[in-house]
DNA sequence: CCCACTTTGTGCGTGCTTTCACAAGCGCGT
DNA sequence: ACGCGCTTGTGAAAGCACGCACAAAGTGGG
């Protein structure tokens, strides 16, 4: 029953492409640090771990930024991708749930290179409130709305226990945050127009386990311990 | 095609389906905890945040475990999915890189419910080696091969700085670990047959930023359709 | 100026994913 | 026993994504 207005798909850059742009960007920045000035699609694709045709098609969605016979100018491409991803502006991030994971994220210095700034840390535990983590004072969850408003937070990160995640998400949304990164192992329910991405360790492990089981003898049992052969 | 060891296809469950099974599993376990005995595809899909037709098709790849007119028996389905994902056996996990993130993972109690067991923590920093984290003694990275062999490690988790990740991955592979979960922001280069999954915070943030920028007035092109307003 | 060589940008075929729509099955009340 | 209502399982269609292969476009040498 989503009576959403027509989805104009707009200037559609395919979602699959968007997901790869950050990888290209990082690869290009590594090249830049090494002083590389231009790079061919073949070389860049190889470094980014993708097919070169796919890379060229991905980049073609941004525009024609390459030079035939030469390749792409690294610096220029870095700028174009950054701009497309919105990294030329400043994004204020709030992290809710300052447990082990929340602290790890807060201290993760290169929080994705530039563009993102951790503006606030919030927790429900009064024993945690007031403590200083990563050069920020941990605030109480009750101040979420004020913090979002005063600090201009536009991205919310949820690292709370599963039980608290939905409530935090709802408060984020009602406070006007439309981008949420969820580390809690629950499916968040949010209104249309709010963008939720989830990072889930146990899901990744389970997918690995599935393939590992298939590689081994499969069946219901564990078969032999890890296969010893490779190559 | 070259000579693939056993069978390349077997009972091909689509990759997209595999990625969703853990979500269904978790949702079912939540229902189970609440005492629910059976669930319809509609209700389960809603709770898992997917379309009910998709859910039914996904489950149909495992077999016909539902009852028409009734739905799915929760407990039975939990078992079937668990078995398919390989969670009925025990997976020994080694975490390399005991920084903030590594510690967070080590302490993350419900490491994805049952099925996974953290068997070892390794680090290159001698100041960290010997310390006790999450009831385990941190070992030195040089013992990786011995630990993998002795503890039967089949899944490696990399939480090192980017610069060290590739070397660790290579050592894992050569030690016989064919499943790697990588948190370091680099593209890992591994031989065929090794399964690498990556979890990358900054990539997720950048994708969120892209969509957020698009929701707003956009940064490069004013392609904003009429009637897009919020608050 | 022309030609050989390099590399981009893309049309097109192929295969995977999602969604729709409905026949087949199952339980229950009568 | 029978039919009604509900729900699964699945063809079929539509939509995406991927990768090949090649024309177009640019560079550099003679």
UniProtKB/TrEMBL annotation, chains A, B:
SUPFAM superfamilies tied to this protein: NAD(P)-binding Rossmann-fold domains (SSF51735), Winged helix' DNA-binding domain (SSF46785)
Transcription listed as a keyword: yes
Protein's cellular compartments: Cytoplasm
Keyword Zinc: no
Binding site for NAD(+): 97-102
Keywords (A to Z) from UniProt: Cytoplasm, DNA-binding, NAD, Repressor, Transcription, Transcription regulation
Domain CoA-binding: start-end pairs: 86-187
PANTHER family for the chain: REDOX-SENSING TRANSCRIPTIONAL REPRESSOR REX (PTHR35786), REDOX-SENSING TRANSCRIPTIONAL REPRESSOR REX 1 (PTHR35786:SF1)
Name the UniProt record assigns to this protein: Redox-sensing transcriptional repressor Rex
Organism, scientific name: Nocardiopsis flavescens
